[in-house]
Amino acid sequence: MNEQAVANMYGAMRTDINQIYSKITELEMEVSEHSLVINAIQPLDPSRRCYRMIGGVLVERTIKEVLPAVQRNKEGLEEVIARFNEALEKKKKDLAELEAKYKIRIKKGDGEMKDDGKKEGNAQGVLVGPAGANE
Description:
By secondary structure, this protein is mainly alpha-helical. The protein is built from two helices and two strands; from the N terminus they run H-E-E-H.
């Protein structure tokens, strides 16, 4: 393969990894929302009315009917997250193999420290410590 094809393949793999990361994050937020709902309705009377959004339609049910469904949805989301994590690890492994095979290294941005100790830009010698260092 030529250099451009390898670069395109590498970019596509990195894009895939980023998409998987964002999907995992989105699903983890949904699991968190499901947990909040479960914790909110669990201690309530099972015969109490509650409302649930199903496919854009608000339906009236009892807590006794809704709670198991929400718990099943949460478990299903957790399984999907586990599968996405497996796929992510496989993609990372494939990316590492591609990096090793073609000796790919990422270039750093321009505004960073160079090896000889000089800084880019007009630094005036101001030293800033970590946040909260004055406490």
